[in-house]
Amino acid sequence: MKFGGSSVGTTERMRRVAERIVDAKRQGNRVVVVVSAMGDTTDDLIDKARELTDEPSAREMDMLLTTGEQISVALLSMAIQHLGERAVSLTGWQAGIRTEPVHGKARITGIDPARIYRELDADNAVIVAGFQGMTEDGEITTLGRGGSDTTAVALAAAIQADRCEIYTDVDGVYSTDPRIVKNARKLSSISYDEMLELAHLGAAVLHPRAVEYAKHHRVHLVVRSSFTNNEGTLVKEEAEMEQGVVVRGIAYDKNVTRISIMGVEDVPGVLANVFGALAAEGIDVDIIVQSYVQNGKADFSFTVSSNDRPQAMKVIENVRSAVPYREAGYEDGLVKVSIVGAGMVSNPGVAARMFDVISKQGVSIKMVSTSEIKVSCVIEAEPLQRVVRALHTAYGLDTSEAAFVGGPQERR
Ligand code: ADP
Ligand code: ASP
Ligand code: MG
């Protein structure tokens, strides 16, 4: 059972989560729980660091941020003990979670669940801090924002749990973010591949690496509400599609920056040089577009996460001696909106329809990328809500019922 930040945002909510865990335990289950930092704790800690420095060291950031989850596990464990059940809290490293030596977005390299088994054998509910691990050298790491989902799924795989339940502030995975489209529909099931695309394309409800893990280890993964008993969404191998519906869901990513490099010599090795240098700095590049060549010079542009923009521009400046170009620039504040559905492969015209819907909103498309099961368009941020709603209607995803949205409406 994994509980996200808003599910444990206050001690009152923490108490309700404790009751839920106690219920599960009293029904005869052995329970391992993963919990996130309370409410906006992680954001608040980041703000504090930024008050002191523009470039906090990645190591110290991990040291700082991992405290958030440690507060949660201790409090939750106490709340369970107060209800008369046995519980023990563990940090990520106590739970045996090893990661690669990367700060801020480490991957889990292995889990030794011996301690967890010992605690389960002692009849404890085992409460593990999400989002954190330790390297071979004993350095503390974090798994990237939203990474507690990954802790939960990875632990579920390591202990071969019967199922992994992700409890959050909405009651499942919806056709799009129910906070911007009120008549989004709750999906009773979704395939690993579709969920993976949605998560990668910005649907915050599950961390992309959690879905990767679930797919790889065939984890029985359920997303459901921590506030109600409504049935959630099952993420599984293949999910049935309603007749005539080709788009399963719509996702958006608000953190897109487009970087353009103009007047580059059209010789072999240009892209290898530029993107090699970006990769060496750990900067993920998303959509890449190279325009036609004129007078032996080419222009190209690509997108990065807005957070990576300052570092990416430095890299571009540094490669200038190896790859001469006329000028480089960037455009911040863009968004990427994507449609996802396994049925797209065999349905021509899905992308054309998307372009048509967006153009009817009077919005111009800056970049496009497609795969077998998704189409993404980069647009300006301002019309995002309108565009998502129009697409949601156009692909027949609207329901007559308003989506259930639990939890705090005000979110950062
Ligand atoms: P937690 O703190 O529990 O990890 P998150 O904020 O990370 O919660 O994820 C839940 C949020 O994901 C929801 O409040 C919702 O606004 C957002 N979301 C985005 N896309 C979707 C979607 N397709 N289905 C459900 N929720 C979504
Ligand atoms: N607390 C971390 C974050 O806010 C991890 C998580 O909630 O999954 O990103
Ligand atoms: Mg989350």
Give a short summary of the structure:
The chain has 412 residues and is α/β, with parallel strands linked by helices. Helix content is 33%, strand content 25%.
Explain what this protein looks like in three dimensions.
- The protein is of the alpha/beta class and 412 residues long.
- It contains eleven helices and 18 strands.
- The chain has an eight-stranded mixed β-sheet with strand order 3-6-2-1-9-11-12-10, with helices on both faces. Strands 14-15-13-16-18-17 form a six-stranded antiparallel β-sheet. A two-stranded antiparallel ribbon has the order 4-5.
- Strand 7 (132-134) and strand 8 (140-142) form a beta hairpin.
- The longest helix has 25 residues, at 58-82.
- The model has no long low-confidence stretch (mean pLDDT 94).
- Aspartic acid is lined by residues 4-5, 36-37, 42, 68, 130-131, 145-148.
Question: Percent of residues in beta strands?
Answer: 25-35%
Distance between the termini: 25 Å
How would you describe the shape? Answer: globular
Task: Label the structural class.
Answer: alpha/beta
Number of helices: 11
Give the tally of β-strands. 18
Amount of helix: 25-40%
Mean pLDDT: 94
| Strand and helix order | EHEHHEEEHEEEHEEHHEEEHEEHEHEEH
Chemical compounds bound to the protein: adenosine-5'-diphosphate, aspartic acid, magnesium ion
Poorly predicted ranges = none
**Strand order, largest beta sheet:** 3-6-2-1-9-11-12-10
Largest sheet: 8 strands, mixed
Cα-based radius of gyration, to the nearest Å: 23 Å
